[in-house]
């Protein structure tokens, strides 16, 4: 499984078969947002475009859009976030995932950052 | 993901709704407590032209701490004005709709700056002191306010913008315990009373719905005072984020969001700022419109909304009764005390009765909402004559 990151602070784990992936926001992003009180995840079957709106995360203060790191079709939104949106604060890069999807084009992963590059990117912010 | 938080907080519109844009350069200034906030772990954001602490340990924790203990807020971005000649009260009554002439020394009132149509230019606190009339105005519009007041104030009346003073707010049920240890005697003040304590000017007031105080302090002493207050076991520093969620729960309107020149005191539910004599006599900006609304009712009303589910409805969301657009949300968020989303907005008066079922459009999704009495969380002011 390979993990990639976007400059918009989403992460994407691509399964070994290269066909499916899991998406969430980074630990850095949840820390910046503060207390998360609601997450709107896409319904299964939703087609999303790379860079397009995919989900909404709401902190006490404000709503923020989450973008799709790649294009694809949503398999599942994380049902656990409905009852406990604070999972994004406590486990942003594990149990607090937002949705899974089937990739349209593996080539879209080119240009995303690996963990080392993302860490360097965040350190420079 | 897209960061809306910074934008939502940084652009309290000033009068005229001029948006902040790239080619509109604003120099961000530092408040006297800037280094102190950073040393205490605050995350700083740009707000009203200053670097301000948005949060320390987290908005929910800070909010709940304030409701149970005491929170220290830095509100030094607000404008402190002193008008100090004889005749100031009479002159101010031509600008403000409140009874200023009848305001005794060491008492304060909530008041409004109004335009000729009765539109709200700012809300403010006005106090009578031995040395003049002291006003605290909103940070985002303080220079516009000064210009406006100066324009209408007779030339011979001096107005001092007290830029060498910082302003702290200590809010919460244990504020009195903590502050009276540092400044003995403050416990004798009741809600909306104020007095000098050495070089501190302290009022028993605030904008969280809790008992508490606002403390005007010379800027070169504010760091020492903040440190001393936070050394009290009841006190923690609190950021602007929790200040906003506290005031929303308290049903208090925020200028630039719930109040602006398109709103008037009657629609906004702020007629308590216009005392009986002023209502009857008029003689303030917008008096004709306001007197008409007072007798006939205003077409819209500011209301509270309990939003069902967990998803907050934010500022700008449209409010519907069936298919009819009846209003707009002006403040909305998640209530840490109630653990549910709450909002404030204007709706047509026909839909303003508590209990009315409405819907709020949030990005194409309809959330059900019920018009709710405000405050959402009861006020706990230390009022004179009130039984505890």
TrEMBL record, chain A:
Q: Cite the CDD domains for this sequence.
A: GCS_H
Lipoyl-binding domain: residues covered? 20-102
Q: Entry's PROSITE patterns?
A: BIOTINYL_LIPOYL (PS50968), LIPOYL (PS00189)
Residues with the N6-lipoyllysine modification? 61
Q: Give the domain of life.
A: Bacteria
Cofactor(s) the record lists: (R)-lipoate
Which sequence ranges are marked TM in the entry? none
Q: How is the cofactor bound?
A: Binds 1 lipoyl cofactor covalently.
Keywords for this protein: Lipoyl
Which GO biological process entries does UniProt record here?
glycine decarboxylation via glycine cleavage system; protein lipoylation
Pfam families in UniProt: GCV_H
Gene Ontology, cellular component aspect? cytosol; glycine cleavage complex
Indicate the quaternary assembly: The glycine cleavage system is composed of four proteins: P, T, L and H.
PANTHER family in the record, alphabetically?
GLYCINE CLEAVAGE SYSTEM H PROTEIN, GLYCINE CLEAVAGE SYSTEM H PROTEIN-RELATED
Described by its record, this protein's role is as follows:
The glycine cleavage system catalyzes the degradation of glycine. The H protein shuttles the methylamine group of glycine from the P protein to the T protein.
The family this protein is said to belong to: Belongs to the GcvH family.
Per its record, how is this protein called by name? Glycine cleavage system H protein
The species is: Sphingomonas paeninsulae
From TrEMBL, chain B:
- Which Gene3D superfamilies does its entry note? Aminomethyltransferase beta-barrel domains (3.30.70.1400), Aminomethyltransferase fragment (4.10.1250.10), Probable tRNA modification gtpase trme, domain 1 (3.30.1360.120)
Where is each GCVT N-terminal domain found?
Answer: 34-277
* Species this protein is from: Sphingomonas paeninsulae
Reaction catalysis annotation = N(6)-[(R)-S(8)-aminomethyldihydrolipoyl]-L-lysyl-[protein] + (6S)-5,6,7,8-tetrahydrofolate = N(6)-[(R)-dihydrolipoyl]-L-lysyl-[protein] + (6R)-5,10-methylene-5,6,7,8-tetrahydrofolate + NH4(+)
Which keywords does this chain's UniProt record carry? Aminotransferase, Methyltransferase, Transferase
Question: What is the protein name stated in its UniProt record?
Answer: aminomethyltransferase
**What is the gene called?**
gcvT
Q: Which InterPro entries match?
A: GcvT, GcvT/YgfZ/DmdA, GcvT/YgfZ_C, GcvT_C, GCVT_N, TrmE/GcvT-like
List the NCBIfam families: gcvT, PRK00389.1, PRK13579.1
Q: Which family does it belong to?
A: Belongs to the GcvT family.
């Amino acid at each position: 499984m390979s993990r990639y990151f976007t400059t918009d602070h989403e992460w994407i784990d691509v399964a070994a078969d290269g066909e499916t992936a899991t998406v969430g926001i980074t630990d850095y992003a949840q820390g910046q947002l503060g207390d998360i009180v609601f997450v709107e995840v896409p319904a299964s079957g939703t087609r999303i475009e790379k860079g397009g709106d995919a989900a909404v995360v709401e902190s006490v203060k404000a709503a923020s859009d989450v973008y799709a790191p790649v294009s694809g079709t949503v398999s599942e939104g994380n049902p656990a976030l409905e009852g406990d949106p604070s999972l994004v604060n406590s486990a942003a890069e594990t149990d607090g995932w937002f949705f899974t999807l089937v990739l349209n084009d593996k080539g879209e992963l080119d240009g995303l950052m690996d963990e080392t590059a993302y860490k360097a990117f965040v350190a420079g912010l | 993901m897209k960061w809306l938080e910074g934008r939502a907080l940084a652009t309290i519109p000033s009068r005229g709704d001029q948006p902040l844009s790239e080619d509109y350069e604003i120099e961000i200034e530092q408040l006297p407590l800037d280094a102190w906030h950073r040393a205490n772990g605050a995350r700083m954001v740009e707000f009203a032209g200053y670097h301000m602490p948005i949060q320390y340990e987290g908005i929910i924790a800070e909010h709940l701490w304030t409701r149970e203990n005491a929170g220290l807020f830095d509100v030094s971005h607000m404008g402190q004005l002193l008008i100090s000649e004889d005749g100031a009260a009479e002159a101010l009554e031509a600008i403000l709709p409140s009874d200023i002439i009848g305001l005794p020394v060491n008492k304060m009132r909530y008041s409004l700056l109004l335009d000729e149509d009765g539109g709200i230019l700012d809300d403010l606190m006005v106090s009578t002191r031995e040395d003049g009339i002291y006003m605290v105005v909103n940070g985002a519009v303080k220079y516009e306010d000064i210009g406006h007041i100066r324009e209408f104030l007779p030339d011979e009346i001096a107005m001092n913008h007290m830029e060498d003073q910082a302003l702290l707010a200590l809010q919460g049920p244990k504020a009195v315990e903590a502050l009276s240890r540092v400044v003995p005697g403050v416990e004798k003040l009741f809600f909306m009373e104020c007095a000098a304590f050495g070089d501190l000017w302290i009022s028993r007031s605030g904008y969280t719905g809790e008992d508490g105080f606002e403390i005007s302090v010379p800027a070169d002493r504010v760091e020492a005072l903040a440190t001393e207050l936070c050394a009290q076991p009841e006190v923690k520093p609190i950021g602007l984020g929790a200040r906003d969620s506290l005031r929303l729960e308290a049903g208090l309107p925020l200028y630039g969001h719930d109040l602006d020149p398109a709103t008037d005191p009657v629609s906004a539910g702020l007629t308590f700022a216009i005392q009986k004599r002023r209502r009857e006599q008029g003689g303030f900006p917008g008096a004709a419109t306001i007197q008409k609304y007072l007798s006939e009712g205003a077409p819209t009303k500011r209301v509270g909304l309990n939003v069902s589910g967990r998803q907050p409805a934010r500022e700008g969301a449209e409010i519907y009764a069936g298919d009819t657009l009846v209003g707009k949300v002006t403040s909305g968020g998640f209530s840490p005390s109630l653990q549910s989303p709450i909002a404030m907005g204007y709706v047509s008066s026909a839909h303003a009765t508590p209990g009315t079922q409405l819907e709020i459009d949030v990005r194409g999704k309809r959330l059900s909402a019920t018009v709710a009495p405000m405050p959402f969380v009861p006020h706990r002011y230390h009022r004179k004559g009130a039984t505890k």
